[in-house]
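user: At home tonight, take the chain set out below, taking as long as you need, and be ready to discuss the fold:
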Amino acid sequence: MLAAMREGQVDRYGAERVLNVVAPVSDSDALEVDRLLEEKLGRLSLTAWQPRNMAWHASQIVKQVDPGAETAAARMAHEGRKVTLDHGVYAQSRISADLPSDVASAAFARVDAMARKLRLGDSSRNLDQLRADVFADLLLGNDPGVTVPQSAAMVYLHMPIDTALSMSETGASIDGIGPIPATYAREIMTNPKSIWRKVLCDPATGNPVDLGRSSYRPTSTIRTLVEVRDRMCVVPWCRRPARHCDFDHQQQWTKDHGSTAVDNAGPRCRKHHRLKNAPGWINHYDPAHGTSSVTTPLGVTYTDKRETVLEPRPPEPDNEPYWVQFRCSEAGSSSRWCS
């Protein structure tokens, strides 16, 4: 990373994002993280060098190098949670809150879902304005004028069974956010309002078991498996959680006679779903291998490869499949494990 900065591959903002992730570890471990990160980025596409993606990969390496430091930093950050008010110009001010990632994500998902539902009958406000108005109404105890299902405020957490049983300190992550300390994940898991759901994964590939069906509309099981497997929109630069994306047939249902099955599906956010077949855009996604590429009308190609749910493990005699679990969190203090 240091060499990349000297060569101009990483700008100041990207470097700061990585430094914030590496801050909890010792100087010697930081150098090791730097070495491993540069080695990993060298194997990946240019998309991996985007600041948010670099921070994502750095957090995974920090967990591998020093899980204890990451847990201590998460504890300190949690103790520093707060709400701040910053008065700006033109009679506009900003309210911001530092919250645990699962709670913040669930809260935003609920506000977003309410805003999108309101937008169906309100063309006078754009989506950002609707989110701001819903946010204010909820804080002030006013009725936003719309309700959404409880599932609209869910956040998925993935965790290998050995981490859940405290036999390992690796593998826990929240979709759309990234790795979290195993200790924190186990605390979320043991919430008395949690509901567990197990997903069988192939230990050789780390991917969930495949299912399929013959009709156009996917069953909840197929949709859930696609969401668990891909976790985010398949467009390389988009990190919108899969549960808030459209179920996209890679081989089109009508034109290409594509099947409604896990091996022909991928999550695309509404914006990128509409853009998929727009003139000048070339999109390709391989659900089996998790490789994705997008070529823009300017001829620039971006590629990416999804992270597996579990780290693939070398084959062992009589190796049994591993169970991986995920969980949903509602906005506020309650939480649920869900499908």
Observations:
- The two ends are 39 Å apart (CA to CA).
- The CA atoms of residues 32 and 185 lie 25 Å apart.
- Residues 210-216, 322-339 have pLDDT under 50 and may be disordered.
- The chain has eleven helices and 15 strands.
